Amino acid sequence: MPQTDPRHDQSVGRVLSKRVDAHGDAPLLIADGGTLTYRDVDEASNRLANGVEALGIGAGETVLAMMPNVPEFVVIWVGLGKLGAIQVPINTAYRGNLLVHVINDSAARTMIVDAQYLDRLADVADRLEHLERLVVFEREADTADVPNALSTLTRLPFGTLMDAQAMPRDELPPYHAVKAIMYTSGTTGASKGVMVTQAHAYTYAHSGIDLMELKPGDVYYAPLPLFHIAGQWAMVYAAMIGGAAAVITERFSVERFWDDARRFNATVTFFLGAMANFLARQPEQPDDATTPIDRALVVPMFPDVYDFGRRFGMRITTTYGSTEVNAPLRLGFDNPDWKTCGRLDEERFEARIVDENDEQVPDGTVGEFVIRAKEPWLLMAGYWRHPEWTEKAWSNLWLHSGDAMWRSSEGYFYFADRVKDSIRRRGENISSVEVENEINSHPDVVECAVFPVASEHTEDDVMAAVVVKPGRSIDPVELIAFLEPRMAYFMVPRYIDLVPNLPKTPTGKIQKYELRAAGCTSTTWDREAAGIKLKR
User: What gap in Å lies between CA 147 and CA 489, rounded to an integer?
Assistant: First the structure.
């Protein structure tokens, strides 16, 4: 590849090197413990890359990272990216079978792990197949005692890696090298390891710059987990590419969010839909409109999202993406149609909506969203060690997203449901998202999840798990009366469960497979058993 090809610069080492030249002493990472400049992160990630290499780890080898939200996590994934080793971040909520699955499936010999997670490793130590070495990170000093169950593993303090020289890397991996294996959140079953190239990660992050009008001087505050693409790429990597700063905080807090935004003088943020919804439903305060945040990415949006934006003085936009398909849709700020995910980035991608035979369907018809890239390596390189999953996902030369969507004649795409979450009731297809939107518009509802349960009449019945606002109550009969005039009769839930919370991944995705598996329980209210008939 010619050195003048712009793709040559789409690897994290080259990106950071160029930003050091332009913004070397500007802040890149801001945290309560201090600020790291672009130059600081560049030098620290060089040390880490050289320290990892000194352990005998080279390009193409997997390295696990189970870390909290700390600046050192960014140094880890940037350093591994410079070396060409493959970062495998672990969801910090994982334990037991889930933890064993990721560790063994990755085939990694080395794991960088925060000391607080050692007990979880000890619980499954006898089931680990490939792991040989732990690099233990501690906030204060490398003095952690490794549980006896892990005594067969070599142990090194994290500081050993950082004692290496900060000499820049002579060779940096190409844009098509695999940068990371990102395990999906497992909302539909076992987590899959998605192979992500340097160019894929760069393109995903760069889409955030375009969406958010990100520029030098911006402060990007989004308390998202750094093991996830939203925190790692959409915030930190986007800030790096755009010459902005990223704020690293431990976790999302409804109580602290706006105070933190003011304290860090944040100008940009990223809300998962649940985060924005929780904040929108808090009591109004006199200073709501004085927050420094000007631009907010909300994924997915919800019915009163623009009222939420106006209340807090923010312009709102959204997108659609996933670990597999990148972030191919764009939307301008404050588009009046909150339901759309945006229009296709036609410079880089082509997409279709297809039926079960992969035939393209007319505009306005729901089908599966499939995609191809116009340049190589912008979509997932496959599922790690599972070619059969890769082959299925890429059937008929299109990458199948698993998402049911439809396209308008103006070229806007609309999310309908996950293909596996769609509901078919007595010959009618129902979008669980549309039902959820109506339930969530009830003033006493915080959030809900709608999913199918088997019907004695064949096909499905509609069930809703509903979380009520603190201090409020909802009578299921009253909720049905609220919903009936707002939707087709066949969409109105038969079953309602009032629950204290919904099962979620740490990134806020509702795990509907747990709800489907539980089905109707002793606490479930049945509309038909209550004798309530709907008007057609």
Answer: 58
